[in-house]
Amino acid sequence: MSITVTLQMKVKEARYAELQQFLQANLPNVRGFAGALNVGVFYNAEQQDLMLFEEWLSKEHHQAYIQFISENGVMSQLLSFMQDAPVITYYGREVL
User: Fold this and answer.
1) CA 22 → CA 61, 63, 81, distances in Å?
2) Which residues contact 32 (CB under 8 A, 6 or more apart)?
3) In what order do the strands lie in the sheet with 87-91?
4) How far apart (Å, rounded) are the C-alpha atoms in residues 48 and 42?
5) 67 contact partners, CB below 8 Å, separation of at least 6
6) Residue 56's beta-bridge partner residues?
7) Whole-number Å distance between alpha carbons of 8 and 5
8) With contact defined as beta carbons under 8 Å apart, do 1 and 27 qualify?
9) Residue 96 clears pLDDT 80, i.e. is over it
10) 40-71 pLDDT, tens per residue?
């Protein structure tokens, strides 16, 4: 059973254009990582809120990805565009 993951963060003022370029260069790597099923990006310009909406095979797959980008420097690059660290939330699937 897959899980849904959201990462919510506030973008620093006047950094969104640079962030877009960064995401265009790096999203293919996320989408190609073991266990990644889907990644979407949503932005609220009025509040400068960015949300990554992701689907992964498991929480462990996602956490392995977070560890990988923390070790290779991609996470610190992403954080340079943000006011604070992202809030990561994991959601399981319920069948109703």
Assistant:
1) 22, 21, 10
2) none
3) 36-44, 49-56, 3-10, 87-91
4) 11
5) none
6) 3, 36
7) 10
8) no
9) no
10) 999 999 999 999 999 999 999 999 999 999 99
